[in-house]
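Structure, all two chains, one model.
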Amino acid sequence: MRTKTAGISEFIQHKFVQIVHRIAAVLVLILIAATVQAQEIDILLKGGHVIDPKNNINSKMDVAIVGDKIFRVAKDIPANTSKKTVDISGLYVTPGIIDMHAHVFHGADVNSISANSPGGLQADAFSFRAGVTTVVDAGSSGWRNFPLFKSQVIDRSQTRILAFLNVVGRGMVTRYDQQDVTDMNPEMNAYMIKRLHPNILVGIKSAHYWGDFTSVDKAVESGKLANVPVIVDFGEHSPPNSIESLFMEHFRPGDIFTHTFSEHAISETAGGRESIVDVKTRKVKPFVFAAQKRGIIFDVGHGAGAFNFNQAIPAMKQGFMPNTISTDLYNLSMNAAMKDMTNVMSKFLAMGMGLQDVILRSTWNPAQVIKRPDLGHLSVGSEADIAVFNLKKGNFGYMDVRRTKISGTEKLEAELTLRAGRVVWDLNGISVPEWQMPAATN
Amino acid sequence: MNKLLNFKRSMPLIIVLIFFAFTTQVKAQDIDLLLKGGHVIDAKNNIDRKMDVAVKAGKIFRVAADIPASTAKKVVDVSGLIVAPGLINMHTHVYAGSNPGFTDGTSSQLPDAFAPRAGITTVVDAGTSGWRTFPDFKAKIIDNSMTRVLAFLSIAASGYSVDKAQENIAEMDVQKTAETVNKYADILVGVRIGRYDGTEWTPFDRASEAAKLVNKPLFVECHLPMYSLEDQLKRMRSGDIMTHAFENVSERMTVVDEQGKVRPFVLAAQKRGVLFDIGHGGGGFWFNQGIPAFKQGLWPNSFGTDEHRTSMNSGMKTMLNVMSKYLNMGMSMPDVIARGSWNAAKSIKREDLGNLSEGSVADIAVLSLAKGKFGFVDSGNNKIEGDKKLEAELTVRAGRIIWDLNGLSANPYK
């Protein structure tokens, strides 16, 4: 372990640093009072191409940050009005990416799938290097262990972590827990969301249920009480439950179907998820369009087993696009076809989705779906969560979960990521000065 | 009739022919995976040229020019790419868990989360566990990872926890440490002295004694503020490893002095056989150390990244990023690859690793060298520019593909 401030007695040093910081802050305030006109901007991202779907911006613009907030987005903001200017010409600037489906309740219980488990990953290890500033955990915790998730993970992460609460109180521990209807308690769920953690908990997850619609219905009931959407992984029914019934009878508008492009080989004995594209005709089932029109949200949730070109490519060709792009990041998906959020986004570029559409589905759309209109855009006054991308040109390959690949000519790469106005990822050091050989060694 | 007789007569011959065809067919495809057309860099075997690499049953089967594709069940075209032994990251903290700090803690990282995507097949944990905590580390992490996890055992009983108990000398037990290393000799590669704020040398000497008992290297980290660098190096034997070699922090004297010269006693230690690991971390690599040292001949022997939660998103990023720094500082590709594989393997006395010898475990990194305009940042937030950067295309662990960036080994979608 090395950190710059690791010292003789970190605690004393930390206190000392705090005092120094306070004195410095006072001095800075005095200085600011004197120079506020000249250099009121802290960081100026200059010369980039801004894509901000909420504000309908898709053009070359500068982005100015003061403190942790977006201060201004405009053409030709003078560099001399900023303390620090980063030249990002040739790069794309977008709102910090929101990964709406991930598993980040990392912990040491090796017998658990996702709750307090090594199966859940550390958000900071995957987020910033992919331009992601917000991840939404998809039901790894339930109301019983959410407090542990919060203290152990959420409060210690730099990434903003929001979460869907599992409809099951124990969260995603084992497959058996997921069947326990006696632990699906809408009152408890709603209380945890609405009364205790409305700023973190954005919805309810139902997953891995083998029976009828009980799990979904309990989730929707919780969602109604807490006024939040539900997200459903409908993948383990044998035989599969009707997704038409799910979309048109059990879901409310705004509820989310994840793993949209999965295709299971379904037999009498092996269950799975009914696909949105008919496996024989390769046509999108008509009720799917109707469902989307009704306001049902279709989330990618790529994962290790839930993204199949045989579904996605015909669907895209027939005019069906997912509402939100997400990874379903967990231990089995991270090194497989999924890899990270930029790879999944780039896969959609390779399938023919436009860059603006890809960004929309990774920023403003998920923000709206989880009812967090404060996120996913670069409006003045909003928190400065920003991604700067390089759109690489070349020959790239993208796989699905069956390990078939398509090729593409573009790939997004996260150059710079800011979280609340702070640079948290800088791939090529575009925000730092050139090193100079000390005079004595020249 | 005659024809039929002839046919009957020739039946044995036909059977033999069919049998022969069948056996050659089997023989024809006895290779599981053939990496074809790449440029192999294998320091141990002194290979630096275009070669094919054949894998069978998890082992390197053959390395040769032009191995026929028809002899393999699966062929991956790796032309234009570098084929190297699976990389070894000499300095990581992977005892990831739920507690604050490193030991079974949230500051450590899961090995599989960063290794395969950087061409790494072996990580060496830098003493995040000690004799008391190692069994738990093994059960939770080591036994559950695709990445091979080896480890230095800390002389501190708990390893590298946040509490002061780790500095309790009474717990720094030479016998128990040596016994644990011997018991898990296939995983534990040495002893580490990590953090001690006192002035007495007992902890350092006990770590050194334990290392000597098990005939493995001592791994010295830097959080030893009251020990002078010169005294530490003097106490180190040939083969012992000093990590964070090129740091510039208050805790330890720098290896390069204010005039930009590598201190003579550091060069003397290097000459004696003391090895230097980068241990980049969040604060452990500075260009004002690394660059003069490189020019004056103090090269790192291994590219440990000091992977952990606060280093991962800093100037360090990945082991390939750290290796690319040295490429752009002027180290040759074979030298860089050697330090990322064979040199590291030798330093932990694991000569079964870090090479592509026939019969070795098939741990392989296929790397691309991207050309362009890149920047590399040090722990002081200074950057150098460069025009080349390594990227992991394909990572093979014991013959199995565990990372495939662009689907090189995948079938095209139809």
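The two ends of chain A are 32 Å apart (CA to CA).
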